[in-house]
Specification:
Elements: E1 2-7, E2 10-12, E3 18-26, E4 28-39, E5 46-52, E6 57-59, E7 67-72, E8 77-82, E9 91-101, E10 106-110, E11 114-118
Parallel strand pairs: 2-11
Antiparallel strand pairs: 1-3, 3-8, 4-5, 4-9, 5-6, 7-8, 9-10, 9-11
């Protein structure tokens, strides 16, 4: 009922930047939570950053000071600005969102993921 689509991944050299986007569509009335997760080959999916209705972001220690999460409620979208990228940031990045449906229920949806590769 709620679809999330990520975009913005790609190949970048160490020290470079990428901006990921996540757009929501479907039968929802409100999105109360957005999050970015990532999964590298052979590793478990891990939290990167979250942002709630109050707008206060939370970050994994590994990305603090380099990544910035933001949301645009007018566009039903979320972004992840990634600066000073390192090879260890290479992963598939997943968008996650939760909130309320128009029928009064709730949702917790995931996107399909977008690949970010940091390599020289």
């Amino acid at each position: 009922q709620v679809q999330l689509e990520e975009s913005g991944g790609g190949l970048v050299q160490p020290g470079g930047s990428l901006r990921l986007s996540c757009a929501a569509s479907g039968s929802f009335s409100a999105i109360s939570y957005w999050g970015w997760f990532r999964q590298a080959p052979g590793r478990q999916r891990e939290l990167v950053a979250t942002i709630y209705n109050n707008g206060r972001p939370n970050y994994a220690d590994s990305v603090k000071g380099r990544f910035t999460i933001s949301r645009d409620d007018n566009k039903d979208a979320m972004y992840l600005q990634m600066n000073s990228l390192k090879p260890d940031d290479t992963a598939v990045y997943y968008c996650n969102a939760a909130g309320r449906l128009r029928n009064g229920g709730t949702f917790d949806s995931w996107g399909q993921g977008t690949q970010a590769t940091v390599s020289s």
